[in-house]
């Protein structure tokens, strides 16, 4: 049985941050065979949405918009000034996503990436409630722009709040808003999910985006990932969205440091993308 999916790749594979000039990659991405491109909006001021949209149309690529949640963008911080920074940023992401014709903004927007500590149950409850209340507001904002949010669990080394599909479905249940949806990333799933197929069944039709790379964040098909389980899991829930490669280049030091990539994961980033596409195309058949 073949998967009815769109294959995409993140521009983070080559560069960071995304700017209007990053659209120069679109021709190469399309040539490799991809029909979607993941656009990480680290700083909305660095891109002109009309020009990016034009480049997408010229290359026949569908956009997927992802957010980046550094230390100042933290909806679980007890200081409300952090919430304001987050809301302002997320609203700008919705504006960009809407202008580009994308349907949602994806990412671990419940908390700052890297906020991983051993905290008391009382503190955990406080932060959980902040995430629920603030994400409900984000969902209301999303509605205003005709958007949804795709929330992403991260592994235990990157967050202490939401590590797997079960955690995320509890959070979405508490948010209780139709705009709250799911992004699952194979890299994090390979660390945190005891049963890949079950994780997909748990999120079901809430799943609107999937990111993949190998277990070591390298080219799909070159590591220990159980691709058969991923395929069965997606088939069971009739997933028809985008599956995109998300990995990073060691050349951009700030980004590489943030995701702990200390060495090249492929001979070249172009090779990573081209070989990754060929593997995923065959896998989806």
Say how many strands there are. Answer: 8
State the CATH topology: TIM Barrel
Q: In whole angstroms, how far apart are the ends?
A: 7 Å
| CATH architecture designation | Alpha-Beta Barrel
Q: How many discrete structural domains?
A: 1
Q: H/E order of the elements?
A: EHEHEHEHEHEHHEHEHH
Task: Give the CATH superfamily.
Answer: Divalent-metal-dependent TIM barrel enzymes
Helical content band: 40-55%
Mean pLDDT: 97
**Number of contiguous helices:** 10
Radius of gyration: 18 Å
What's the level 1 CATH class? Alpha Beta
What's a quick, concise take on this entry?
With 285 residues, this protein is an alpha/beta fold.
Write the layout of secondary structure elements.
Elements: E1 6-10, H1 26-32, E2 36-41, H2 49-59, E3 62-67, H3 80-100, E4 104-107, H4 121-144, E5 148-151, H5 165-175, E6 180-185, H6 186-192, H7 196-203, E7 207-212, H8 227-236, E8 242-245, H9 253-258, H10 269-284
Parallel strand pairs: 1-2, 1-8, 2-3, 3-4, 4-5, 5-6, 6-7, 7-8
Helix pairs in contact: 3-4, 4-5, 5-7, 7-8
């Amino acid at each position: 049985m073949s998967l009815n999916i769109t294959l995409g790749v993140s521009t983070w594979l080559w560069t960071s941050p995304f700017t209007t000039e990053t659209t120069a990659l679109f021709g190469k991405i399309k040539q490799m065979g991809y029909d979607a491109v993941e656009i990480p909006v680290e700083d909305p001021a660095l891109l002109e949405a009309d020009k990016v949209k034009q480049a997408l149309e010229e290359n026949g690529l569908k956009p997927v918009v992802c957010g980046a949640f550094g230390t100042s963008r933290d909806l679980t911080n007890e200081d409300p000034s952090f919430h304001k920074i987050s809301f302002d940023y997320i609203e700008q992401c919705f504006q960009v996503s809407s202008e580009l014709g994308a349907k949602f903004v994806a990412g671990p927007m419940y908390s700052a990436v890297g906020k991983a500590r051993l905290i008391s149950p009382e503190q955990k409850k406080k932060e959980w409630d902040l995430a629920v209340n603030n994400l409900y507001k984000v969902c209301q904002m999303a509605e205003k722009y005709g958007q949804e949010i795709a929330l992403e669990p991260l592994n235990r080394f990157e967050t202490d709040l939401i590590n797997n599909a079960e955690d995320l479905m509890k959070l979405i249940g508490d948010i209780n808003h139709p705009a709250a949806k799911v992004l699952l990333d194979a890299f994090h799933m390979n660390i945190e999910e005891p049963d890949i197929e079950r994780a997909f069944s748990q999120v079901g039709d809430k799943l609107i985006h999937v990111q993949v790379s190998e277990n070591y964040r390298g080219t799909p098909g070159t590591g220990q990932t159980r691709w058969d389980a991923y395929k069965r899991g997606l088939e069971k829930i009739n997933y028809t969205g985008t599956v995109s490669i998300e990995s990073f280049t060691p050349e951009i030091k700030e980004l590489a440091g943030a995701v702990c990539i200390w060495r090249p994961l492929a001979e070249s980033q172009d090779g990573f993308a081209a070989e990754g596409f060929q593997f995923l195309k065959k896998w989806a058949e």
